[in-house]
Design a protein that fits this description.
The structure is a single chain. By secondary structure, this protein is mainly alpha-helical. It is 49% helix and 0% strand. The chain is rod-shaped.
Length: 90
């Protein structure tokens, strides 16, 4: 609302915010809008997704480095290396 009387023309008369004895035509009451939580929620989701992507890329890079190292060992030293997962239930 750009003009002081725009609130009165729109029918906004917050009587509880106007002190007694004051002409309501000369008063403009400014109230803060309700807080929007959309920005912080989207920021949290974006940060969480970015962290997950970084961790996945780090794991893939580590797995590829181990596979390359295991493939390179026979060419360097003449020995074979096999990567095995530990068996459970012994």
């Amino acid at each position: 609302m750009r003009h002081p009387d725009a609130q009165l023309r729109a029918g906004h008369r917050p009587a509880h915010l106007i002190p007694p004895g004051v002409d309501p035509r000369n008063v403009v009451v400014v109230q803060a809008p309700a807080r929007s939580y959309t920005g912080p929620i989207l920021l949290t989701i974006t940060i969480t997704g970015g962290i997950v992507v970084v961790i996945v890329v780090a794991f893939i890079t580590f797995q590829m480095a181990v596979a390359v190292a295991a493939a390179a060992v026979p060419t360097v030293g003449g020995a074979g290396v096999t990567i095995r997962l530990a068996k459970k239930g012994r």
